[in-house]
Specification:
Blueprint: H1 5-27, E1 37-43, E2 54-57, E3 60-70, E4 77-83, E5 94-99, E6 106-111, E7 125-130, H2 134-166, H3 169-202, H4 204-230, H5 233-255, H6 259-266, H7 268-290, H8 315-320
Parallel strand pairs: 1-7, 2-6, 5-7
Antiparallel strand pairs: 1-4, 2-3, 3-4, 5-6
Length: 321
Amino acid sequence: MKLSREVKTGIIVLAGIALFILGFSYLKSNSIFDESKKLYAVYNHVGGLQTGTVVTINGFNVGNVSDIKFKDKSGKLLVTLIINNKFEFSKNSTAELFDTGIIGGKGIQINPVFDGSAVVQSGDTLKAVIKPGLTELVQEKLTPLQLKVEDAVSNADSLLVNVNEVLDDKTKLELRQSIAGLNNLVQSFQKSANALNALMDDNKTELDSSLKNVNAITSNFATISNQLKEADLENTMQDFSKSVENLNLLLGKIEQGQGTLGKMANNEELYNNLSSASKELDLLLQDFRLNPKRYVNVSVFGKKQKEYTLPENDPAEEINN
């Protein structure tokens, strides 16, 4: 059967239309023959999201963005997602818009939820979530720091103003004079340090000799310490301590009136008697010295002894009285 020219032209036109549809669908990453789900998500701002952007679940490519348009007069954007994978998840899952890199690319990942609710079907709208990008996070962190820096700069300006008010011409002059005096003091210290260094250099030999003498004295002390250690000083001190304890016991007994010494130390009558006897002995010796004839009668060559005459203020009388 021979086809006419018109029929051939119609077949060619239909084939071209079919090829155009297939090519356009391929460029949009849409499959005509595979079963897929069309899902929606509504965003206030898509941040430059483009059609054809890959849609992932847990990092795995499951579809792409097929269309972006305004939903209504509010300015919200309706994003159409084509999911080619048969992976099932709850209709309560979220479509998260996130940054794909530092240069600002955007991507969409579905965070699947398995809560037992109805499985998502073609035509359902997922809850839209926007994940803050690196720029937003940096701005979020830097904003408080910026406010603090601004406050610090403001406080620094106020401080400088107050300092300028305090530092009048007189104060500035006094401050300069103080700094100059401090410089002079530092120079004086430097001169003193130089003089001390020169003195030490000049007397280095004497200092070395003194240090050697100190070392010798230290060695002698160490030798004496060893000798004291070898002399059993510890036992000697223990014996001395025992002697002191015994002496303390003896003194305690004397204070309590025990023993002969204790009775003598605590008997007031004995003390008075001894004091009186000592006094009488002194008077007797004095009387014997002054009046020996009263106590000794010596006759030489048969000469008759003179009778003794009592002197005035006789000490012996005081003893008898």
